[in-house]
Design a protein that fits this description.
The protein is an alpha+beta fold and 183 residues long. Helix content is 53%, strand content 25%. Strands 1-2-4-3 form a four-stranded antiparallel beta sheet. The protein starts with a helix and ends with a strand. 11% of the residues are buried. The mean pLDDT is 84.
Length: 183
């Protein structure tokens, strides 16, 4: 009898433990996110997130080398395309005019001292406003404008106005900008 009572006690303990384990498993299955479909959805969401983050980070790979090359390119740009003296600008414009076969009554220069402090300006470079009127045959004036646009120095044409036209000769007022290295 004692043996039967002992076996019954063991059986009751085992059934109680199995009942608790069964209850824990039911709770686990009923919790949100514990089903296989929820885990698959979470995994898919994490994959999409990884893909998005990888897409954002990919352009930054090797940025240190790209920045170093950009610094070299900027120095080269300044050295080749931005004159250091006003005389270089005026001599160069006179050469462009002579090569194109146009004449001018004069060239007016203006510096905007406040422009160099604006956010969008280049560092250590000053904007120079230039205003001139060129006269010549239409084809020669067009050649001059084309030469300015393709020149080694940076010339940004702001405005062109037709002043007069007689026969094949035109007179254009040209307002443009260039840059000068600050000393």
């Amino acid at each position: 009898m004692k043996h039967l009572e002992k076996t019954r006690k063991q059986f009751t303990t085992i059934v109680a433990v199995l009942g608790v384990v069964n209850l824990l498993l039911i709770i686990y299955l009923l919790l949100p996110g514990s089903s296989p479909s929820a885990r698959a959805a979470q995994e898919a969401s994490l994959r999409e997130q990884k893909q998005a983050l990888t897409g954002e980070v990919t352009p930054l790979i090797g940025i240190d080398k790209k920045l170093a090359q950009t610094r070299v390119d900027v120095k080269k740009f300044y050295a080749e395309k931005v004159p250091g003296q006003f005389s270089q600008i005026s001599q160069h414009l006179e050469k462009l005019m002579k090569d194109a076969g146009v004449t001018t009554a004069g060239i007016r220069y203006g510096q905007d001292k406040n422009a160099s402090t604006e956010k969008n300006e280049l560092p250590d470079v000053q904007r120079v406003n230039i205003d001139t009127t060129v006269t010549g045959e239409y084809s020669k004036v067009a050649k001059f404008i084309n030469a300015m646009e393709q020149d080694k120095f940076v010339f940004i044409i702001d405005q062109i106005s037709l002043n007069s036209q007689e026969g094949g000769v035109v007179s254009l007022q040209v307002k443009f900008e260039t840059f000068l290295k600050e000393s």
